[in-house]
Amino acid sequence: QVQLVESGGGLVQAGGSLRLSCAGPGSIFSINAMGWYRQAPGKQRERVASITTYGTTSYADSVRGRFTISRENAKNTVYLQMNSLKPEDTATYYCNAIANAHPWDSWGQGTQVTVSS
User: Fold this and answer.
1) Greater pLDDT, 85 or 24
2) Angle at 29 between CA 1 and CA 105, to 5 degrees
3) Separation CA 25–CA 75 (nearest Å)
4) Could you tell me if 33 and 50 are in contact, meaning their C-beta atoms sit under 8 angstroms apart?
5) What is the pLDDT of residues 49-83, one digit of tens each?
6) All residues at 6 or more sequence positions from 2 whose CB lies less than 8 Å from its CB, including other chains
7) In sequence order, what are the residues at sequence separation of 6 or more whose Cβ sits closer than 8 angstroms to the Cβ of residue 79?
């Protein structure tokens, strides 16, 4: 059971920025890709960004150019810098380890991001 803790969410006006953090057991950050996901009410959970152990990143089209994922394995932390936030970014955001292109099937509580217009 991987226990990842997300933090950094909150209320922000459209156009504003937030930085989310995800911390957990040190071992997983050295050997696994990591991803950020979000889920809005009534919607499926979607991957918004991922980063490999080598630092290669990928983004959903909806956030590309606005969000940046990064990792600091020495601090056992993954970040999601979110700029130019839009109301449609409102969701609960989760992080998870990725194995074989899929997230592990255990999810934490996430952190809520609410963007007002």
Assistant:
1) 85
2) 35
3) 10
4) yes
5) 999 999 999 999 999 999 999 999 889 999 999 99
6) 24, 25, 28, 96, 97, 104, 106
7) 19, 20, 21, 22, 69, 70, 71, 72
Q: Identify the pLDDT of residue 1.
A: 59
Q: What is the pLDDT of residues 3-36, one digit of tens each?
A: 899 999 999 999 999 999 999 988 888 889 999 9
> ∠92-55-34 over CA atoms, to 5°?
35
> Please, are residues 39 and 72 in contact by the beta-carbon 8 Å criterion?
no
Contacts of 85 (CB under 8 A, 6+ apart): 12, 13, 14, 15, 16, 17, 18, 66, 113, 115
User: Among 57, 65, 39, 60, which residue's Cα sits nearest to residue 48?
Assistant: 60
With a cut of 80, say whether residue 2 has pLDDT above it.
no
DSSP state of 30: H
